[in-house]
């Protein structure tokens, strides 16, 4: 069963109550004249703009869109997000790929009117009822399957439906405990309905696990409801995270921390980036840019014990600092990487981030090194570069010893190195190389399951060395096994070549040809296996096991498999008939006919002749050279056996006469009555 990760489906729910129309309590400077050189102080004061205020609704929407931007930049596929407001009964977008993306979410959220503090409340629909409808909409969206989950079910792969719900709300207007209780009961009831009525529906599945993240937003100047994140296990299907956060600039930072936790991300700060000043192009300064990527890029730092020394606290988040480097060597020499990941800057709108992104998208690369304060030598640890207009970070193999410095110990033994099927493995990799998907049409027609099945078939019986199997070490079978059988359409010339390979085995078997070192691809020390009596039987068995994985490729593949299978079956039947059902009196004539038609090997004939000669010798010793038939022989045998038993005792007194029994028996002459009987006197 495939357990889809929790971060595969994320639903963001916004509280659209009137409370979120209040100002967050933090002001934002928006003075555009500060970027240009003012002519005078009085003119600067006259054009200065007053600070701006943001509502709680604006803070929540901006933080959610920033969270979505990070997810879409790092995971273009299979990390889906849907947004719902308490004002709407349904989600504003679906799981379909066409409705995923930051641009689509921004356009849809822009059409929603923000909450209005002065708007009259709808008495017909109280806030509790509106909230319940929104929570039900979240659960209905969660039971709907994504395209990836539907493909797994179509391929008969069982899945577990899991996901995460992030709810922007406030404990000042709502109690959070009833929300958790509602989710527990609603999930239980919804799963019962799906099990009873929609069990065979391919578009919905019951909920196996949900993680509810309740973000309690407070005003900028107020204290937090909880100083630490609380985790509650409400039921088997529901786990709740209670997060309290101040609004304003603190909320996006909190969402970045949650994204790190939910998607296994890490932050790397690229320091000392040389950049020209915006106002003075003749001078330059060093800037820092923080980027997000998968945390596996820091594994080597952790293994070498350098990770703790590179940590720096920025806004309460652990950040790994790596220095901008200008290596003297060519960037193409850094081809040995251990892992890679997409990157996205945290402050995407800042000037340093824009300059770094433009620099990388122009086709250049940036080498990052570990700070000198951490190590005594210069170590280049990571590389930033682009692939297909997407920016990646690569982790270089900067350990003490490179994996290509120490050559394999097998290189010292040339014979063992030649035994490896290196050329066949190279051809196998070339014939199974996947090209990058460039268009949407290629993506829709990409059959990943078929490719996986093909690889499983090809690797099911793939010996690593020539000497591992008999058929892989024979020169005559090398083209048959390596080039032809792995190709799905077999041409006429390849078909004739396959026929020649099989004819060679049949001719060698009929002639009882002995295998020498000249027939082998690699030399072997022990030729005993090639001199066994059942050597050719082993060849047909290995050929059958090898061709079994290719029989579904085409009709010609199936023909070769059936041919080899029939040959092996006929050999087994011939041996069984000879060993069990052969009449000894007709053995010599039958063997002569079989030997003329070449239906069985000569070794089997010799073995059966030995058994027949032993049977004849045994019968002569038992019966002798007399002309007795079977009845006379059997009667004589029974008489001899009866002589071994003791004779009846009375026969010694009555020779050639009938021996009477109970001679001393006397009958009582009294009439029968009570107590009457027979008297017996035995002398």
TrEMBL record:
Domain of life, source organism: Eukaryota
Q: Which species is the source of this protein?
A: Brachionus calyciflorus
**Position of the signal peptide:** none
Cellular location(s)? Cytoplasm; Nucleus
Q: Name one GO biological process term.
A: cell division
InterPro entries xrefs: Cell_cycle_regulator_Mat89Bb
What's in the GO CC field? cytoplasm; integrator complex
Give the protein's recorded name: Cell cycle regulator Mat89Bb
Q: What is its main location?
A: cytoplasm
Identify its protein family: Belongs to the Integrator subunit 13 family.
Q: What is the lineage of its organism?
A: Eukaryota, Metazoa, Spiralia, Gnathifera, Rotifera
Enumerate the UniProt keywords alphabetically. Cell cycle, Cell division, Cytoplasm, Mitosis, Nucleus
